[in-house]
Design a protein that fits this description.
4-stranded mixed sheet; single chain; signal; elongated; 255 residues; 7 helices; alpha+beta; 6-stranded mixed sheet; Nuclear Transport Factor 2, Chain: A; Glutaredoxin; Thioredoxin-like_sf; 2 domains; Disulfide isomerase DsbG N-terminal domain-containing protein; DsbG_N
Length: 255
């Protein structure tokens, strides 16, 4: 069973009119608590009757703060875990489920971004590589958490020009690879501090140099203290369990 954690406001408490009755809710809660142990919080967030499968409903439930999508029988006594391998032939039901899941994922990401931003605001600005947008009047800031030896981060870096067209960029390092990744991160921070943030070409060139798959560094290019500062940044970024890997990025309006 795949779990999703996010915050939903009261506006998201949507029920199919006249359908989520008291017996259904009680039966469903009882059934679920027999399956999942130590349920302290149980709240049905949405219930939708499926047209193509008689007697089956698509339900999103808050279980101990985790938003969990499930298929539940109309009497609430049978539960089927939601899977990415579910195929729905009826277009109406397919659109309904896709819409619910799209909103679920959007709300998860919004909550992750909010928590990540609170963490990032506590980190000194000199721990970031700052690159100004091509548009000097741009009011947005994209934060990128990255690792110079991560293949996905390397691919992510190819989008830098696109990012800079739409926002200013701040990059912070949270390596998940070995010592050389920490050294590269420390070296880039030192070298970037000598480049003006509006020199996008030079900063992109710097990033490309150390993100290159063939890039090598020696241990003496950064001190143990500099590598440790990168490690402390990574610990802070991963501390809340919201940022679980790299690359991780989000955009906010500049304060």
């Amino acid at each position: 069973m795949k779990k999703f954690a996010f915050y939903l406001g009261l506006s998201a408490l949507v029920f199919t009119q006249g359908f989520a009755n008291e017996n259904f809710s009680q039966n469903y809660e009882s059934t679920l608590k027999n399956i999942v142990k130590n349920v302290e919080k149980f709240e049905i967030m949405s219930v939708d009757r499926l047209e193509s499968i008689d007697g089956l409903n698509f339900v999103i439930t808050n279980i101990n703060g985790e938003m969990v999508p499930m298929f539940v029988s109309k009497d609430g006594k049978s539960v089927i875990g939601f899977s990415n391998l579910i195929f729905i032939g009826d277009d109406k039901d397919k659109i309904l489920i896709e819409g619910r899941m799209e909103k679920l994922h959007a709300d998860i990401k919004a909550n992750q971004d909010k928590i990540a931003y609170e963490i990032i605001k506590e980190i000194p600005k000199d721990r970031f590589i700052n690159i100004e947008s091509f548009d000097k009047n741009n009011k947005f800031m994209t934060y990128i958490v990255s690792d110079p030896e991560c293949p996905d981060c390397r691919e992510h870096l190819t989008k830098m020009v696109k990012y800079l067209r739409n926002a200013n960029v701040r990059i912070i390092f949270a390596p998940v690879h070995g010592k050389s990744a920490y050294t590269k991160s420390a070296v880039m921070l030192k070298e970037a501090s000598k480049i003006n943030p509006d020199n996008q070409e030079a900063l992109i060139k710097l990033l490309n140099k150390y993100y290159d798959i063939n890039a090598t560094v020696s241990d003496d290019q950064a001190s143990d203290e500099e590598r440790d500062r990168v490690l402390q940044d990574a610990k802070k970024l991963f501390s809340k369990g919201v940022i679980k890997g790299v690359p991780f990025s989000f955009t906010v309006e500049k304060e």
